[in-house]
Design a protein that fits this description.
About 20% of the residues lie in helices and about 15% in strands. It is an alpha+beta fold. It has one domain. The protein has a five-stranded antiparallel sheet, with no helix packed on it. The longest helix is centred in the C-terminal third of the chain and has 13 residues. The protein is globular and about 50 Å long.
Length: about 180
């Protein structure tokens, strides 16, 4: 990808796909082969762990602007897809970011269900997942499940405190006090 797009993949991901497997039947619907998630990887990812996209913290005007046909859609920039849980819930890897704390992190990507794009984090340390953290979490979590149990990577999302704004969608909908 470096020669073609000018992007250097994060070391742990690059090592995994070149020595272990480039794709597979797990996690969820499978580890996707290296390809863009309809994204422009050569453009930087527009979010950081401290600046996320979470629809319930947005005002109606902010949401309208996000989905405005005249506003360039940048939410997919700088990403490669790792896997999908189905129903529009995906795990994505940031491969282009000027922020060193964002590059190489794995994010929960769910625009289909009006959630947003939020970094996955270790519950104990609060640090954003890197590729191998994400994969290890899936393996450990799956190994601990019973045959009829299910989990979602959404459980690794830690939302920031809601902004002090009565007009955010979460408050208007009654989901945030």
């Amino acid at each position: 990808m470096r020669r073609k797009k000018g992007i250097r993949l994060p070391e742990d991901y690059r090592r995994f796909i070149t020595t272990i497997a480039g794709a597979g039947s797990q996690p969820f619907y499978g580890l996707l082969p290296l390809r863009q998630k309809e994204s422009i990887v050569e453009q930087p990812f527009p979010y950081t762990p401290d600046h996320i996209l979470y629809f319930l913290h947005m005002t109606e005007e902010e949401m309208d602007q996000f989905y405005d046909e005249d506003t360039p859609f940048t939410a997919d920039n700088g990403l490669v897809a790792l896997c999908t849980e189905g129903d529009g819930m995906d795990s994505v890897l940031v491969v282009n970011s000027p922020d060193p704390d964002t590059y190489g992190t794995v994010w929960y990507y769910d625009l289909a269900n009006d959630c947003g794009i939020i970094p996955m984090r270790d519950k104990e340390t609060g640090k954003p997942f890197r590729f191998l953290d994400w994969l290890e979490y899936w393996a450990d979590r799956t190994a601990g499940l019973g045959s009829n149990e299910y989990f979602s990577f959404s459980e690794t999302v830690q939302l920031p405190k809601a902004p002090d704004n009565p007009d955010i969608m979460g408050r208007k909908m009654g989901w945030i006090e």
